[in-house]
Amino acid sequence: QVQLVESGGGLVQAGGSLRLSCAASGRTFSSVTVGWFRQALGKEREFVAVIKASGGTIYYADVKGRFTISRDNAKNTVYLQMNILKPEDTAVYYCAARSDSVVYTSPEKFDYWGQGTQVTVSS
Question: In this predicted structure, what is the pLDDT of residue 2?
Answer without folding.
Answer: 87
